[in-house]
Structure formats: C-alpha cells, structure tokens
Specification:
It contains two helices and six strands. By secondary structure, the protein is α+β, with helices and mostly antiparallel strands. The protein has a single domain, classed as hypothetical protein PF0899 fold (2-Layer Sandwich). The two termini are about 30 Å apart. Bound molecules: zinc ion (ZN). The site of zinc ion has 8 residues, from loops.
Length: about 110
C-alpha cells in the first residue's frame, strides 16, 4: 500500500511549509488525486489518518478531489477526457492517446491556523 508512504511524504512536506510560513496546525486539506494516478482515494483516507496522528495535521479534515484524466488524441486531433488508463478516445475510438493530465496527486489547498 504505497498510499502510506505518500501520506507520510505529505506530512513531511507540510511540516517544512509550516516552518517557512509559520503556522502551527492544519485544519483542512484538499487533496487532488487524478483519476489516472495510481492512488486509491479510500486507502489514502485511511493512510492520512494514520500518518497525521500526533502531527500538526492531527484531526485535519481531508477532502479528496478526483480530476478526470486528460489526453490528446492524435487520430482526431483533439483534447479529450478519459476515465481510466487504456480507454479509447471518446470522439473517434482511437487508442492513439497521450495522457496530458490527471496523473498526479497534489495538495490543492491547506487551511491552517
Ligand atoms: Zn480521437
């Protein structure tokens, strides 16, 4: 379950930020998990709770957004939205797609005190 190491990495990154920006507690985290990323939102919720326990993020609300996958289709030359890796182009059915977005996990916003 690599979500645990991602959650721990997130805590470390937020701790660094707290020193730079001088906040002591995080109340809310909005996390973006792209539809094409290999992160399971449910596993992330669980890992988040475990990884933040006893840290400045303890008790923070976690909100997860799942932006759709974005891809460029070379067959019909358009930008399309796909739900999962391996899907064909919704316009023309071609698989000549290059993924251009929705692959990452990132912190979209933090509400801090
Ligand atoms: Zn197409």
């Amino acid at each position: 379950m690599h979500e645990m190491s991602l959650a721990e990495g997130m805590v470390t990154a937020v701790q660094e930020q707290s020193k730079l920006q001088n906040f002591r507690h995080v109340k809310r985290v909005i996390l973006e998990i792209g539809a094409l990323s290999h992160v399971d939102p449910h596993a992330m919720e669980f890992s988040f709770e475990a990884a933040t326990r006893g840290t400045l993020m303890d008790g923070a609300d976690l909100e997860i957004l799942s932006p759709a996958g974005q891809a460029r289709c070379f067959a019909c030359d358009s930008d399309v939205t796909i739900e999962r890796r391996g899907d064909g182009c919704p316009n023309c059915g071609s698989h000549q797609l290059i993924v251009t977005g929705g692959e990452d996990m990132k912190i979209k916003a933090l509400e801090v005190v």
